[in-house]
Amino acid sequence: MRICLVSMPWHLLETPCLPIGLLRARVDACRDPHTVVDYYGNLRWAEYLLDVSGGQIAEAEYSYVADRGVWHEMGEWIFAGALYDDPAWRVDTYRAYLEARNLDPGASLRMREHAAGFVDLAAREILEERPDLVGFTTTFQQNVSSLAVARRIKQLRPDVQVVFGGGNCDGPMGAALHRNFPFVDHVVSGEGELAFVALLDALSEGRAPAGVPGLVTRGPDGESVAGPPAAMVPIDMVPRPDFTAWWSAYGDGRFAERLSPVLLYEASRGCWWGEKHHCTFCGLNGTTMKFRAKPATRVWDDITHLVETHGVLDIVTVDNILDVAYLAELMPRIQESGWDLRIRYEVKANLKPDQLAALRDAGVTHIQPGIESLNSRALRLMDKGVHGTQNVFLLRASDEYQLTVDWNYLYGFPDERAGDYRPVIEQIPAMVHLQPPSGSVRVLIERFSPHFQSRERGFAERRPSRMYQHVYDLPESELEDLAYQFEAPPQGIDEDVASDLRAAIAAWRHDHAASTLTWRETEDGLVIDEGRAGRPRCEYVLSDPAQARSYRLMERPRTIAALARELAAEGFAMSEETLRRWVGELRGAGLVFEDDDRVVALATNRRPLRVAEVG
Amino acid sequence: MDTTLAVRKPGAVLGDRLEVSTSELSRRLVDGAAAPVLLVTGTPYAPGLDAVTGDLLWQAGVREVRIRETVRADDGLLHFLRFLREAASHDIEVVWESAGDLGCDTRLLYHLPPRAGDPSWRSAYRYGLCHYRVGPGFVTVTDQRRGPAVPFTLRNPQEIGLVQDLDRPGPSDESSAFAGLLRSGLIISNGRDALCLPYRLRRWPIPCTVI
User: Fold this and answer.
1) How far is B65 from chain A (nearest CA, A)?
2) pTM (predicted TM-score)
3) What residue in A sits closest to B126 (Cα-Cα)?
4) d(Cα A10, Cα A70) in Å, to the nearest integer?
5) Which CATH number fits domain A516-601: 2.60.120, 1.10.10, 1.10.3470, 3.30.70?
6) Per-residue pLDDT tens for A466-485?
7) How would you classify residue A327: left for phi > 0, otherwise alpha for psi between -120 and 50, otherwise beta?
8) A553-586 pLDDT, tens per residue?
9) Distance from CA of B124 to the nearest CA of A (A)
10) Which of B5, B36, B205 sits opposite A610 (nearest CB)?
11) ipTM of this predicted complex?
């Protein structure tokens, strides 16, 4: 068979499509040989926009819809008019949605005007490849552009088999997509490495694919027939991705001269923390939480191959959590290579200093540790398994180890209280020299998360997020199965506390670039240089050896009692009461952060190297 | 323990600054006998400076180097530019001034710590403006001295060899690889010797995505 694998908008322009890279390699496992061609509809759409707009709609406008628009189905709305053959489809609903949230539409309204023309072009370009089967991979905002092109393909060539797969097809979402869009012949629901091969084998042998695990297909009368749930894919069956076709398309296209390519890599699936304690808001692992990681030797071989083949040193891993074994088994090998890699990784926030050093030395420059909050009680409600002071430690240590940290402050958890936020809000001005969150938002309800799975967790009145209203012509009962994001009446803190938190974080973001707080050892003792915005320049001098030692011990989070014991063991005996007085003095000057009877130092051991964002 | 936090006005702490001559600078750094601010005396292109690397300055905790003597456009200039490049690779500030024209297109130097009294240079300078990264069999160069530009890749072994060999001033040659790198402003030559201008990126800034 001739197979065309398609990645539609709003996949990022500078990265290959990982599902296509994996499935391309997996087709080799089929009984019969097949020819695979790729179609990067995301790149073609961006080029199309450049042409029709005379260069006015370019990569920045595309990225806005891809990055910001994902929270509002902006990209899906752009193609919804093409899907429903109605250029005016839900325009008013969309405008009202944006206005109610004071959101900038970017170039989305102009893009909508060109969507139908592009859908026709894309369908014809795909059919020029003479495919027997077209496979669409869809995650986040890739549903509607894929559906629109699939529908057009079926209009032009009804005999072509259309298959959908990807994150948007996991669980009930895949069945709902199949049920509501009759031009989709098959949906691979869940991990695709086994089901896609089984589907191709059935089709090439002339068998009906009904009964393939993880596949939803059509019965004799066109009705949806779901096979049994897919078995979990062993990590050994996850191949090294093949990005050669993407590399050609990217290199031949117009964005190679405008963007820096970034490779994607998947070393593991699932979440080892989530297996034990599922973070209450997280739905990212879909139906497969079980953690499976490639051996470090395989990861190293794959990375070597990809870096050598493409000459690209920037890598984003899509893993939901770093395998702790990689710290000892993989990172030193990467470091030994001497290559100047820049790797982004999601990690658990309880990393120790030597582990942060191992990451940095290997070229992991960018981490997403899932900080979410700086308050231990709120973190317990989320089942995060870290204390607030551990998160502050990670922020401070990331500056010391020169690691960029992505994080968000989440609120709105059932049973949280104002008291979980007020002390943090009060201490935020002392932390402005540390990397701020990108923002603070009320937690969303994601499918597959504990918040979603059990209504008794506090979001009993949930319904599909309002943003689906400007996209789909479907009743709420169908959206209930198709949607990934849901909303419910607000829980937890009220709007007064929430707005104070947002204001404090906005000030943090504003003051960060101009703020430092560093300590150094001098002949006068430990001296802390005050350089935070909003405070007069001064030096705090900890000349008493007990003062200096206590501050150094507070580099790692400690309870006051533990700190007193350690100081006593080092010959600095003092009562807990004295120590509390001293910690209170430090807190008064904003030199420590306190939460849940634990304390952690805020001054960094050296000035971080910062570069301001341009524009 | 005294539980009062002592506060004082900011000022020089004894041992914060150190005067050192160019000829003994590297030895001081190796011995760990440095200070956050170095006041450097002596000719700014003395041979001793060639042993000073960015790593050495960084590990010794140096934040700022002040060059006392005026820099001139003469045979030693490449050695001084090499020193500037090493300091720039770790974002270490260098305070220096030049006597008149440096005898080259200073826009090629905008990724290096700016000289005093040159507002164009100062406003153009930022960390990472022109650097390279090493991969297996290739070198990726980011050069934004003339404005925003995406990185490009060197795969020619001769070009990669020159980037490495001209880490310190070395002889110019007649090869096409040399001519190409000279044309693109990645090496600078005084006719006899040449120097690789971009530094190898050793420290990632925060956020690491901006360069």
Assistant:
1) 16
2) 0.96
3) A611
4) 9
5) 1.10.10
6) 999 999 999 999 999 999 99
7) alpha
8) 999 999 999 999 999 999 998 899 999 999 999 9
9) 12
10) B205
11) 0.95
